Amino acid sequence: MPIRTVMKANEAAAWAAKLAKPKVIAAFPITPSTLVPEKISEFVADGELDAEFIKVESEHSAISACVGASAAGVRTFTATASQGLALMHEILFIAAGMRLPIVIAVGNRALSAPINIWNDWQDTISERDTGWLQFYAENNQEALDLILIAFKVAEDERVLLPAMVGFDAFILTHTVEPVEIPDQEVVDEFLGEYEPKHAYLDPARPITQGALGFPAHYMEARYTVWEANENAKKVIDEVFAEFEKKFGRKYQKVEEYRTEDAEVIFVTMGSLAGTVKEYVDHLREQGLKVGVAKLTVYRPFPTEEVRELAKKAKVLALLEKNVTFSVGGALFQDFSRALVNLDERPKIVDFILGLGGRDVTFKDLDEALAIAQRALNGEEFDEVNWIGLRKEIL
Amino acid sequence: MAESPFKADIERVQKEYSEKMTPGAIVYIPGSSVINKTGSWRVFMPEFNREKCTRCYLCYIYCPEPSIYIDEEGYPVFDYDYCKGCGICANECPVDAIVMVRETK
Question: What domains are defined for chain B?
Answer without folding.
Answer: 37-102 (3.30.70.20)
